[in-house]
Amino acid sequence: MVAWHTCATIFTFKELVYRLATRRHIGWKWDEIVGAPSRCGTLATFAARSCGYFAATSPARSVRYAPSLRCAVLRAIAFLGLFCLAPNTVAHTKDELGTFFPKPLDIHVQVNGFGKVSSADIAAVLQSAALEIWKHCPHCQLDGIDVYYRADHPQTDFKRAPSGRIGIGLSARDTHWAQYAFQFAHEFCHALANYSNDPQRSVRYPRHANLWLEESLCETASLFALRVMSRSWRTAPPYPAWRSYAPWLNDYVEHRLALPEHQLPAGTSFLVWFHENQAALRQNSDLRGRNTIIAIQFLPIFEAEPRGWGAVAFLNRGSSNPEESLAQRLVEWRSQCPEDLRPFVTRLAGVFAMKLERLRKTK
């Protein structure tokens, strides 16, 4: 009997993983299964629901193995739960082929102020937006995020909460999903650049002359996330009823890109424009129109190599001189990245016609 239970547990676990990986199931997605213990409240509740799921998708087997099925599923789910329940830090798991599967971020939404919308729906949109970046960051760990409403403008808090969680304020309201996603992707990028892999860091990095670079990367994150979401929502939206909203996500991006303030002046190259505007950006990093012009240059590089988002976690590491040049910041950023991400920073530097290898040797 012990041997039978063991075999049933192994079989059931493999069957669940296979069905989830191939999406041969009814109404459940991989991210919902991995995050289910927190959604269901307890692992026991999750296991009970999984028994119902398995019986519904494999009725013949559920009858055949009736006496031991529930025990087998409970054991398999408990084993799976060992990899799903992280206390306060979200990391990644890796399969035998080297593919990274991010666990859902720990996002808590304080619904007050957001209008006629549920916190669960907001959280679903935010998870979707962040996942398009987070799944490319295998070197990163990030603590829980508390999202709240603020009427003035979105912002990643400059100081962690006493619990260690990261506060992000958004100004979107009601069911404007594209605006929620756009704002949160931007602020999530700030969280990566300031708080990832460093649970002891209680405050954001101080302002410096090259902060415009981080702002431009975060603007890129918004454009990137919505464009990818517009494709992924066509087949796998957070809820089936949201599939029809997918085109609007891309429309939101295209409208923003078409605004006059986001265009280079006629007949002016990006490099000429940048040399004319760099001084102003070093004085004021939040010139959104100019941030977006730079983001438009970055976007195709990230779209061609999305794993570059992992480099953002190392943007502010290392020595920092508040008045350092852009070349110095890029060289330092590249040196702090893992070896496999350094060529990506070199490609971003090419947007500004800078050759980091040569600069590193003369530093």
Largest sheet: 4 strands, mixed
The first-to-last residue Cα distance is 70 Å
The total beta strand count reads 8
Regarding quaternary structure, what we see is: single chain
Low-pLDDT sequence parts: 7-67, 76-88, 95-99
Shape assignment: globular
SSE sequence, one letter per element: HHHHHHEEEEHEEEEHHHHHHHH
In helices, the fraction of residues equals 40-55%
Structural class: alpha/beta
- For the largest sheet, list the strands in their spatial order: 4-6-8-7
How many individual domains?
A: 3
Q: How many helices does DSSP assign?
A: 15
How large is the radius of gyration? 23 Å
Strand content: 5-15%
Average of per-residue pLDDT values = 80
Describe the structure.
This protein is an alpha/beta fold. It has three domains: 2-81, no CATH class; 103-195; 212-362, no CATH class. It is built from 15 helices and eight strands. The chain starts with a helix and ends with a helix.
Chain-wise SSE layout:
Layout: H1 2-22, H2 30-34, H3 36-40, H4 43-57, H5 59-64, H6 66-81, E1 89-90, E2 92-94, E3 100-102, E4 107-109, H7 119-134, E5 142-143, E6 145-149, E7 155-156, E8 166-170, H8 177-195, H9 211-235, H10 246-258, H11 270-283, H12 288-304, H13 326-336, H14 342-350, H15 356-362
Parallel strand pairs: 4-6, 6-8
Antiparallel strand pairs: 1-5, 2-3, 7-8
Helix pairs in contact: 1-6, 4-6, 7-8, 7-9, 8-9, 9-10, 9-12, 11-12, 13-14, 13-15
